[in-house]
Amino acid sequence: MDLSVNIAGMKLKNPVIAASGTFGFGKEYSKFFDLNKLGGISVKGLTLEPRKGNEPPRIAETPGGILNSVGLQNPGVHAFIRDEIPFLREFDTAVIANVAGNTVDDYRAIVEILSDADIDAIELNVSCPNVKEGCLLFGSTAAGVFDVTDAVRKVCKKPLIVKLSPNVTDITEIARAAEAAGADCISLINTILGMSIDVEKRKPVLANVMGGLSGPAVKPVAVRMVYQTAKAVKVPIIGMGGISNESDAIEFMLAGASAVMIGTAGFVNPNVWVDTIQGIEEYIKENGFDNAADLTGALIE
Amino acid sequence: MDFRERIVKTETLAKDIHLIRIRSEQITGKAVPGQFVNVRCSNGLDAYLRRPISICSVCPTDKTFDIVYMKRGKGTSLLCGFCEGDMIDVIGPLGSGFTMPSAGEKIAVVGGGIGIFPLLYLLESCNGVNKTAFLGFRSKDAVVMKDAFEYASNKLVVATDDGTFGVKGFVTKPFFDWLNVNRPDRVYTCGPLPMIKSVAEHCVKKKIFCEVSMEQRMGCGIGACLVCSCKVKEGPDFDYARVCKDGPVFPAEKLIFE
Ligand SMILES: Cc1cc2nc3c(=O)[nH]c(=O)nc-3n(C[C@H](O)[C@H](O)[C@H](O)COP(=O)(O)OP(=O)(O)OC[C@H]3O[C@@H](n4cnc5c(N)ncnc54)[C@H](O)[C@@H]3O)c2cc1C
Ligand SMILES: Cc1cc2nc3c(=O)[nH]c(=O)nc-3n(C[C@H](O)[C@H](O)[C@H](O)COP(=O)(O)O)c2cc1C
Ligand code: FES
């Protein structure tokens, strides 16, 4: 039985990847389990220059999920290459650099730098709801996604994943734009813009007022968007949003995802990634599949 | 990895203040004062995140540790349902602890409300040290662990906001009075923001070593998600540190209070 999957010219040993922003650069979770077990790691969103992020509080608990407003706090791409890649490369797992910027030029510059770095793929974050400029602005229209992807494609020497925002009217239109501009793969969903109010204080819980919703609460929305996107594009899809176990992960694969990412659920169960890999293996065995890749799109309609 | 450990005792200390004693070789073997554990309050999606609670006391021979919590919202209300013999899902010890005093030094701890608990573990862990404890509570009904603090320190001063027990007013008042005639080698503080801010600023001004235990809403609790920020000085500028990993204990002079 084979758990490995091929996406965008990358061979992952299994379809489970740690989602960007929830896993840092891997060091913290490496104390809980062997990172060699992961299909891949998408690192914290990187920008050209270091960013401090937003004022705290940056998190609010909501029914079955969380709102976050971290706002891309990161040490900058150069510090990532210098300080974080060597550690990540101690493990046999795909390293995906998640990148964000304010302008098309920012995106192009950071992708140019990362094209020569020792990483396996680049994930273009055009969907962060927590920063004032750029990012989500590009992600919310098909034209915006096309422009950034197109500009980046010309300089990108790595497999290019474009991560889409769910905060749009028609996800398929955006996904087609990314594909047309040369994306090798599409990942979705990023967080859903939300808000939470403390009624005692009559104030927003987050200092930033609004934040991105993730965790089990978003799963049905995410599965639906993966399903629609899979029908709209030919490039492979990485699905995410609220996955907490193998059955959630398989749901995304049946809807059309070739691999999955897990984030928020790790805050509650730090072993969620390895538990899910093991669960997928058992499901495949019990349901007569030969390999994990056969789950993709195996939905009976 | 399985994080479930056995509860060996639960006790109500005052209205809405409860103690849980947990047996864990792993946690008691590694813990130092100032660290916390991240507790799962439910198995379902309600009160989804773990709750950070300080380690209040450790018994190395029994391999048990105590957490004491105040019932506030959803998660801590669910904690009240745990009983002796139950298993509880706790990750820890987490965070960085207090700098321990050396033998012969003179220290003071200043705690308010639920902030007093990590200070007890600190007091219980240092021997040959002259220890004065200042504790503040809302009122007499909220005073807890007085005997334990009395036993663990050389001198205990209790203050209540309404004067129903000990000194009337905020605990900072008797502490600052004491500071006028005493010069401790180290001060440790944990509690409500106005209290820790005033203790920290006072100590920084007088150039007294002071460490502050901070609180912030957490996600992962282990340093990976960057949600638990606290503003700290970084050269001429500022930066956001992680309360769960870089803290919860910070040197007073590093902190920027707003
Ligand atoms: C390092 C650290 C040590 C702590 N030690 C203790 C202790 O020993 N005893 C004790 O009673 N309390 C302690 N607290 C505070 C305790 O974590 C909160 O009271 C608790 O999380 C509230 O949860 P709830 O479900 O009752 O409230 P809810 O309002 O339902 O909580 C909603 C969300 O907000 C978070 N939250 C709410 N208040 C706080 C707070 N003050 N600090 C951090 N997160 C908060 C919760 O964790 C949860 O994610 C500590 C906090 C930190 C950060
Ligand atoms: C605290 C936090 C920080 C995040 N940071 C990023 C980021 O830097 N870049 C990005 O593309 N997505 C980021 N995300 C979104 C996640 O990668 C993921 O798309 C989303 O959380 C849905 O998956 P989940 O429900 O499994 O967490 C972040 C999510 C959280 C909770
Ligand atoms: S709670 Fe995730 S970094 Fe502190």
Question: What do these coordinates show?
Answer:
The complex is a heterodimer of chains A (301) and B (258). By secondary structure, chain A is of the alpha/beta class. In chain A, 59% of the residues are buried. The two termini of chain A are 26 Å apart. Chain A has nine helices and 16 strands. An eight-stranded parallel β-barrel of chain A has the order 3-4-7-8-9-10-15-16, surrounded by five helices. A four-stranded antiparallel sheet of chain A has the order 5-6-14-11, with no helix packed on it. In chain A, strands 1-2 form a two-stranded antiparallel ribbon. Chain A has one domain (5-53, 72-193, 215-295): Alpha-Beta Barrel (TIM Barrel), CATH 3.20.20.70. The longest helix of chain A has 15 residues, at 272-286. In chain A, helix 2 links the parallel strand 7 and strand 8. Chain B is of the alpha/beta class. Chain B folds into two domains: 2-94, Translation factors (Elongation Factor Tu (Ef-tu), domain 3, Beta Barrel); 106-216, Nucleotide-binding domain of ferredoxin-NADP reductase (FNR) module (Rossmann fold). Chain B is 20% helix and 36% strand. In chain B, the strands form three sheets. A seven-stranded antiparallel sheet of chain B has the order 4-3-7-1-2-6-5. A seven-stranded mixed sheet of chain B has the order 11-10-9-8-12-13-16, with helices on both faces. In chain B, a hairpin with a 4-residue loop joins strand 5 (57-59) and strand 6 (64-70). The longest helix of chain B is centred in the C-terminal third of the chain and has 13 residues, at 193-205. Chain B is globular. The termini of chain B are far apart. The mean pLDDT of chain B is 96. Chain A binds chain B through residues 21-24, 27-29, 31-33, 44, 52-53, 55-61, 63-66, 68, 70, 73, 215-217, 264, 266-268, 270-271, and chain B through 1, 40, 45-50, 91, 216-231, 238-240, 245. Bound molecules: flavin-adenine dinucleotide, flavin mononucleotide and FE2/S2 (inorganic) cluster (FES). Flavin mononucleotide sits between chains A (19-22, 44-45, 68, 70, 72, 98, 125, 128, 163, 190-191, 214-215, 218, 240-243, 262-265) and B (219, 225, 227).
